[in-house]
Design a protein that fits this description.
Helices cover 38% and strands 11% of the residues. By secondary structure, it is α+β, with helices and mostly antiparallel strands. Among the domains are: 44 residues, no CATH class; 193 residues, Penicillin binding protein transpeptidase fold (Orthogonal Bundle); 176 residues, Beta-lactamase (3-Layer(aba) Sandwich). Strand 4 and strand 5 form a beta hairpin. Helix 5 crosses helix 7. The chain is elongated, with a radius of gyration of 35 Å.
Length: 690
């Protein structure tokens, strides 16, 4: 045969023509050989599995499964005979009209799509068959690369080679994604219509058939009109193919869709708000669409501590009145690395997916003051710096007068120390300090703590009048707790693909502190004062209502506005922030509701530290401690009724003993006389009025 061909070729006297024919024949032989090799290779691999194992699974920090993007409530495999015939017809006419005619690749459709793409100079027309889509969903990622396309082609050949068309169609309809975590026609039928896949009306079947093209865009829950427009297109196609009558077309297109109520839809059981954050973080890490991630088969190892999560939810549910409309947000974090260990973004994820811990911005009130007092420590303050606590009018740079007030109008009417000002949350002391260091400095300091929300450099910023998120505040407090190291709040430790290949692993972060470890330690100890009743003065310390519930060493700060209640505090191992309030900024008027955030915080922190040894904050180098009289701010003597250990940067500690309390002081406390009071930095600041 070859010799005959050779003789025929050499009879052609035109040499270029002869070589053109030889080259063409060689290319044809090579192509045929290549195609045959592919088919032989595909055959040698055997039949691929028809079940979809590409669930994206979430694991807790201990390795337990906490959720998957297509959980057990959203996976049902049903036979093709148990599916509504009209749904099958609608799917075929929508996705692949010649499914039963081609062998996995629709050449006519491919050529048509190519022509459309050339005309538009972009890839606007798709040509994937049902078999190709099935191969992609089962075994591949959704990346748009030639390598992925070649793999898809190979899987398509194998599927068509070893399985009947009905088997492929059945597998496709049981694995295609319909949005909202529902995979397959049975899961989608139950989710959208609360019925099985063999009991759908024409209207329901055609509505479902249109969703996979864009599960988000055509979701009847999110974009009802888009879903209806797509449904009418499919009904029109069925009518043109004489698969439904004109009457059926009219009735189905005008049928009112009875979609399921929210309470009847599938729900996430473990930490649903946390899982929402994981999905968003995963999207940023992998740079993929959410819908692609859902079907990507990823194994996601998260930071969630399921025991702590349960404790946070239990503490919240036990504290909040079941009849109140008050909302809650809570976030617990490991201060060493920013790992989020538990999270609630509201009272009921089914009713509202709005994550109040991340998305809401609320006024933090006095819980913002630690950032102010860190700046003060950086600018010469110590734990015993004294300022007058009494009603004060401040004349601001623009000529306006600002008069802050203390809670319930209580004032010491005498100088108080920084230690007492934090413990009692004295507002006059805070505003004086803010104006001394300059509000612009407070804004810069807040930025150093990771606060990214918009902050105006105004006098009232000291009292937390700008809006921030719970996540920002907890991250900021983590820097105080860990000695000044910056942290990045995160929920993901590692991500692998379905074969165990590591796609992402959070690196161990070791860096120099961005804040002064000495001042963060001093601030931490000052913040333990809210639970120390030796600092009681013109009123009780702000943590007095929960102090008797606490068994560990905690530092913290509460904050209250007319519409918001905050409690943020920490041990050396956990930082927790709780916010309570109303979504529409309704005032908090009931006394018990103002205490909810503290009660939830105390209950959770105690449960989280149950059966754990007593933890202490590590004292950095360059720090000295001294027992101080909290009234005078001088070194305590045996005659001082109250003494508190306070810490100072070495060289800034008090060097004089208290002269307020003396042996002959039968009243127990003597008011310091003006000549006894040491001058302080406020003596050089201008203000008007008393």
């Amino acid at each position: 045969m070859l010799s005959l061909l050779k003789r025929l070729l050499f009879k052609i006297k035109h040499k270029p023509l002869r070589w053109l024919i030889i080259s063409s024949c060689s290319i044809v032989f090579l192509m045929v050989g290549f195609v045959m090799a592919i088919f032989v290779y595909a055959y040698s691999l055997g039949p691929p599995a028809l079940t979809n194992e590409q669930n994206t699974v979430y694991y807790s920090d201990s390795g337990d499964v906490i959720g998957e993007e297509r959980g057990p409530e959203s996976r049902y495999w049903v036979d093709l005979n148990d599916m509504d015939s009209q749904l099958i017809e609608a799917t075929l006419i929508t996705e692949d009209r010649r499914f039963y005619e081609h062998s996995g690749f629709d050449l006519k459709r491919i050529i048509g799509a190519a022509i459309q793409d050339i005309r538009s100079m972009s890839m606007v027309q798709g040509a994937s068959t049902i078999t190709q889509q099935y191969a992609r969903n089962l075994y591949l990622s959704h990346e748009k690369t030639w390598k992925r396309k070649l793999k898809e082609a190979l899987y398509t050949i194998r599927l068509e080679m070893f399985y009947e068309k009905d088997e492929l169609l059945e597998g496709y309809l049981n694995t295609i994604y319909y949005g909202h975590g529902a995979y397959g026609v049975e899961a989608a039928s139950r989710y959208f219509f609360n019925t099985s896949a063999d009991n759908l009306s024409i209207a329901e079947a055609t509505l479902l058939a249109g969703i996979p093209k864009g599960p988000t865009y055509y979701s009847p829950f999110h974009h009802y009109q888009n879903a209806k427009d797509r449904q009418v297109q499919i009904l029109n196609s069925l009518h043109k193919e004489n698969l439904i009558s004109k009457k059926e077309f009219y009735l189905a297109s005008h049928e009112k869709m009875n979609l399921t109520e929210p309470e009847n839809r599938s729900k996430k059981v473990i930490a649903p708000y946390f899982q929402d954050v994981v999905l968003q973080e995963l999207q940023q890490l992998l740079n993929e669409d959410i819908e692609e991630i859902r079907s990507g088969g990823y194994q996601v190892y998260t930071t969630l501590n399921t025991e702590n999560q349960q404790q946070l939810e239990t503490s919240t549910n036990k504290t909040l009145d079941i009849n109140t409309e008050m909302q809650v947000a809570g976030l617990a974090m490991d201060p060493k690395n920013g790992a989020i260990i538990s999270l609630i973004g509201g009272r009921d994820h089914e009713k509202s997916q709005y994550n109040r811990a991340f998305q809401a911005k609320r006024m933090p009130g006095s819980s913002f003051k630690p950032f102010l007092y860190y700046a003060a420590l950086e600018n010469g303050y110590t734990a015993t710096t004294s300022l007058m606590s009494k009603p004060t009018n401040f004349e601001l740079a623009d000529g306006t007068v600002y008069q802050p007030s203390n809670y319930n109008g209580y004032y010491a009417d005498k100088p108080i120390t920084l230690a007492q000002a934090i413990a009692l949350s004295d507002n006059v002391y805070a505003v004086k300090t803010n104006l001394f260091i300059q509000p612009e400095k407070l804004v810069d300091t807040a930025r150093d703590f990771g606060i990214t929300s918009k902050l105006r450099p105004v006098a009232s910023l000291a009292l937390g009048t700008e809006s921030v998120s719970v996540q920002e505040m907890v991250a900021g407090y983590s820097m105080i707790a860990n000695g000044g190291q910056s942290v990045t709040p995160h929920t993901i430790k590692k991500v692998t693909d379905s074969e165990g290949n590591v796609m992402y692993e959070r690196p161990e972060k070791k860096s120099e502190p961005t804040l002064d470890p000495r001042n963060t330690f001093i601030l931490t100890h000052l913040m333990t004062g809210m639970f120390d009743e030796s600092l009681n003065g013109y009123m009780q310390v702000t943590g007095a209502t929960i102090a008797d519930q606490l068994s560990q060493n905690y530092a913290g700060k509460s904050g209250t506005t007319k519409t918001d209640s905050w409690m943020i505090g920490y041990s050396p191992s956990i930082v927790t922030g709780i916010w309570t309030g109303y979504d529409k900024n309704k005032p908090i008027e009931k006394i018990n509701e103002q205490q909810y955030s503290k009660q939830i915080w105390a209950s959770f922190m105690e449960k989280a530290h149950e059966d754990k040894p007593l933890q202490s904050f590590k004292v950095p180098e360059g720090i000295v401690g001294a027992y101080v009289d909290p009234i005078s701010g001088d070194l305590a003597t045996p005659y001082c009724k109250e003494q508190r250990l306070m810490y100072f940067v070495e060289g800034t500690e008090p060097n004089s003993y208290c002269s307020v309390h003396r042996p002959d002081d039968s009243e127990g406390e003597k008011e310091p006389q003006p000549e006894d009071r040491k001058k302080n930095i406020w003596d050089w600041l201008p203000f008007i009025g008393d």
